[in-house]
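Researcher: We're reviewing a set of sequences before deciding which ones to prioritize for further study. For each one, I'd like a predicted 3D structure that I can look through quickly. This is MA2B1 mannosidase. If possible, include the structure in token form so it fits the rest of the review sheet.
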Amino acid sequence: RLRGDGGSAPWELLFQASVPALGFSTFAVSRLSRGDPRGHPARAPVLSQPREIQNEHVRVLFDPLTGHLKEIQNLDKSISLPVFQSFYWYNASVGNDESPQASGAYIFRPNSSEPVPVSSSKRVSAHLVKNALVQEVHQNFSSWCSQVVRLRAGEPYVELEWTVGPIPVEDGWGKEIVSRFETTLQTDARFYTDSNGRQVTERRRDYRPTWNLSQTEAVAGNYYPVNSRIFIRDQKFQLTVLTDRSQGGGSVFDGSLELMVHRRLLYDDNRGVGEPLVELGADGRGLVVRGRHLVLLDTVESAADRHRLLAQELFMAPYAVLAPGGGPSYRR
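Model: Here's the predicted structure for MA2B1 mannosidase, in token form for your review sheet.
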């Protein structure tokens, strides 16, 4: 099933698969006849008003009134953390006589440090789906932004699969979309990002280690490249978000972190491209982007044991390749 991108398929095929090291596995999918009893498996229940999902390692709580993520619990360590997550968009600067620099392909420059919630109301549409392999809460923030909060059986992380786009620009504003996490962690203006997927570097808001910074961009001036992970922590707990692609991210206020997931801009930033960042896609309506964030809650002492290995798994994940059937099977 293709969620949020106009796909007409009503179902999603889900099965557990394994792949050998430096190898591949093939699986065949075929349509069964209506009379075949195997063609009518038990359907996963769809439940309204989601309150929680849980596997062997993690429990995730939701606000039943708003549908938003409310709390993450690490059952192995018996720790919990209030976590609110939602999507926002920054108004992109357009460039004028007083401030000529516009947001564009190379420049992130919002015209306000306060983003706009993607959801026009405090409540998001949400429903719960459970089966033997996954537990999911499907959230719909708007007609162009949705997310599946997922726990896989046996895995110690929360998976957020987001689908964003086409970003509407009929109001004349270019938009830069972020997924923001807000927690109660006392972070003292510090957060951490990886350097090219390897060494983790401490970042401090409105600070540079080698010169006295006069900050003029409260948001963009505190964004950094995030190739594989970003995290915040206090003296006890750490919240880590792993990315499946390089993104920009930061912590614009204590206890928070955010990652930019999509952009659509209406003006060129005068950095050589000579056109705005406004790809229309195959249907001419704008691009739809889908990606994943993996969220880990752990103690500061043991957080790296999991996020380093999981980041490598994401980076070296096997490719899923689809092809029509009927031809000869690949064999090793």
